[in-house]
Give the backbone structure.
Amino acid sequence: MSTRFDIEVIGERINPGFKSTQALFDTSDIAGIQALAVRQAEAGASCLNVNVGARAMTDHAFLTDVIRAIQEVVSLPLSFDVPDVATHERCLEIYDPRKAGGVRSILNSITEHRWDAMRLYRDCPFRVIVMASERVEDGLARNNKTAADIASTAKRAALRLRDAYGVPLDEIFIDLSVSAVVADTEGLSRATLDAVRLIGSDPELKGLHLMGGLSNIGQQLPAKAADGSDLKHQLENAFLTLAVPHGFDTVLGTPWRSYEWLPEGNYVLEAYRFFLGQTGSHALRAVRRFYRS
């Protein structure tokens, strides 16, 4: 029996947040970007996220070259993480779904407060990532800090996409923010996991995808856990071990990382469970358990 999670991985590496990728952008190294796309595809990515940073708005020729070059070497659909509607419209014009087996691209992302990009949907349909971390209240964007707010925002957005635009639920991804444990004194990690359970058990939302990026979860923590394991990676696996059974099925992550179930009794999993029950200064003290036995 495989210990790997049965989840989709949207490859995150074409992103200036990675220094090695920023270097490729700085030198307009198209061949290097193609090699990075191929490496992610060969490692099992189901889709590739494309984020060229602020240059997407100022250098349309580079953006065009990047998208076309990636589609020359891989047959995966692309997810476009761009800063404004005009740039996303440009990405849709360049993207060729025929080179991705007819699969639509993904818009990464909309929120209730930033909905303008949906005006592009009728002319060129795409799949949608919805950020459930904020809602609109009295005309203003508000951060969601409880499971109930996260789940209700996700449901409201998903049903609006389905009913007003005709987006099938299985083409909608709800992005549930996964907090860095070192800065989480308000129980945001617990709220996220509780929201996964609420959304995943809602029969009206059957088919909806639940996803998140895991790269920040172990930010600013030591490399090794108290048991000698890779702390950041074990934290990613601990989150998935608790979330996947309730419908979390997609990760924005690095495809060659091995996302695997953690067994009961695993040191980091148990420390994470303890941490989830804490808030305030108790949460800060609980973080030390990850790297101090």
Q: What stands out?
A: The beta strands are 8-14, 47-50, 78-80, 106-110, 127-131, 134-137, 140-143, 172-175, 209-213, 248-253. The first strand starts at residue 8 and ends at 14.
